[in-house]
Design brief:
Structural class: alpha/beta
Shape: elongated
Largest sheet: 4 strands, antiparallel
Strand content: 5-15%
Number of domains: 4
């Protein structure tokens, strides 16, 4: 192509258009003569070319092919290119990523974009860009990241991570968020850590971590109650497998129960201020108990599965709040062998409402309770018996006379600078609370699994030199030294037919 001035000349033209203008020619009549008139005509030609692109319809990605490169084929061509490229960044001609039918819902969306306003999202697929363009109207269609013309025009490049960060505070329907999650399914999770998630209570949180996802196995607890505990439950219409991949958790009863927020609420349930949640509208003790017991029931927990539940505040028979692990289930096996008045019973209405399983899993004594402690240093000073209010549910210090048992074990071994360590202690607690006349029933209870293991499984002791020894378990040791068989100690008896 050549410049027509107005007839064809030898002046090369690299711009993809026919240029006809009354350029002054040099003496050969083949090239434009330099001077003010030529400069003026170049500027007017650049105006016309920019206007041509601005009026081009339909606005598609193909128009980018009409953007000239910076290097000219001659002096006039170079001047024209520079003039055109000065105007195009301010000319609205680039196609937006938002499709035409989607723009009908928002007449404020532009029909075309100026390069200085337009943005290209790097690392995003076409579906993702189309969804993002509904809320980020300056985005260009996907697949244009490598176009040199856009670099020449100064079009901004936005990493996908930054585009996602811009969505913070956005209010859109859960269905819209789910469409976005669908489009992001194959993206590197590290780039989506700040992805917003709409919650069931109407809020939106930043980042899927620790968000609970409703599903077929989701807890039946009211999402509003969970929100008051500080938990984040995703809106059902926005739940998507991508969120789980990014750190969200299925809202199963066990997952909800073991969240830091629920654990903190249980630990603080006996405090005067109520559950620690730094919010005014937090569940009271009764509502918290119902919530936790419902989760425990739905999770089908067994006693000892989550020992920290023993701190849950429950009403006793007099209506006073006590830790669950210090209450007895009325009419249960342990209540039938315990001395009267040793421990309070859990409120009768609460017991009737929930039954044995959830209350026992929370530490209420239906049967004898087991303590499971690992790596216990056999130091009598450290193993002094402790009250339940000041010990963890699996603290070996809750065992009656455990310090005496520790001393008996230490007497078996030579003195050493490092005390021996019991690798695991499985023991029955509250043996000292059994009524003297109820030991036959109590021994029958202790003979059944899993309590029987605490009687017959020896304890493995790690010595300072790395060797191991086994010793009599605590439960067998305690029973051996107390009058549990017809008012006599087993240590002073022999089996019928045994050697004297």
């Amino acid at each position: 192509p050549v410049v027509h001035a107005p007839t064809p000349s030898d002046e090369p033209l690299g711009v993809p258009a026919l240029l006809i203008a009354s350029f002054p020619l040099d003496s050969t009549r083949r090239h434009a003569a330099p001077g003010p008139l030529t400069d003026f005509l170049v500027q007017r030609a650049a105006d016309a070319y920019a206007g041509l692109l601005a009026d081009w319809r339909p606005v598609t990605a193909g128009i980018i092919d009409l953007v000239p490169g910076p290097l000219g084929k001659g002096e006039l061509d170079g001047a024209l290119r520079r003039a055109v490229l000065e105007r195009l960044p301010r000319t609205s001609f680039l196609p937006p990523a938002a499709e035409r039918d989607e723009r009908h819902d928002d007449p404020g969306l532009p029909e075309s974009l100026r390069p200085r306003d337009a943005e290209v999202v790097e690392g995003a697929g076409a579906d993702t860009v189309r969804v993002l363009a509904e809320v980020l109207p300056t985005l260009l269609p996907a697949g244009l990241e490598r176009r040199a013309e856009l670099r020449t025009l100064g079009v901004a490049r936005v990493p996908l991570t930054d585009a996602v960060d811009r969505l913070a505070g956005l209010e859109k329907s859960p269905d819209w968020w789910r469409r976005l999650y669908d489009s992001l399914a194959g993206v590197d999770p590290d780039r989506l850590s700040g992805l917003p998630v709409p919650l069931a209570d109407g809020r939106t949180t930043i980042g899927p971590r620790q968000v609970l996802l409703p599903g077929a196995e989701a807890t039946r607890i009211d999402p509003e109650v969970l929100a008051r505990l500080g938990l984040k439950v995703a809106h059902p219409d926005a739940a998507h497998p991508l969120l789980e991949k990014l750190g969200a958790l299925p809202a199963t009863p066990r997952a909800v129960l073991t969240t830091p927020q629920v654990r903190a609420a249980v630990a603080a349930s006996l405090d005067d201020e109520g559950p620690v949640n730094w919010e005014e509208d937090t569940p009271d003790a009764e509502e918290l108990a119902d919530t936790v017991l419902g989760l425990v029931r739905d999770a089908a927990l067994e006693p000892g599965d989550e020992p920290w539940l023993g701190a849950l505040a429950l009403p006793d028979e007099d209506g006073e709040l006590s830790p669950a692990c210090e209450l007895v289930f009325p009419g249960g096996p342990f209540a039938q062998v315990m001395r009267e008045g040793e421990l309070a019973s859990v409120d009768g209405e609460l017991a009737d409402k929930w039954g044995e399983q959830p209350l026992a899993a929370c530490g209420v004594l239906v049967d004898f309770a087991l303590i499971r402690a690992t790596d216990v240093v056999l130091d009598p000073d450290e193993l002094e018996p402790r009250e339940g209010d000041f010990a963890e549910p699996d603290d070996a210090g809750l065992l009656d006379a455990v310090d005496v048992w520790s001393e008996d074990v230490l007497d078996r071994f030579p003195d050493s600078p490092v005390p021996p360590v019991a690798t695991e202690i499985v023991a029955v607690r509250d043996l000292d609370l059994v009524d003297d006349d109820r030991w036959p029933q109590a021994l029958a209870l202790l003979s059944r699994p899993p309590l029987r293991d605490a009687l017959v499984q020896p304890v493995r002791i790690l010595l300072h030199d790395g060797t191991h020894e086994v010793v009599r378990p605590y439960t067998a040791w305690w029973l051996r030294g107390h009058p549990v068989i017809g008012g006599r100690r087993p240590a002073g008896l022999r089996a019928a037919g045994g050697d004297p």
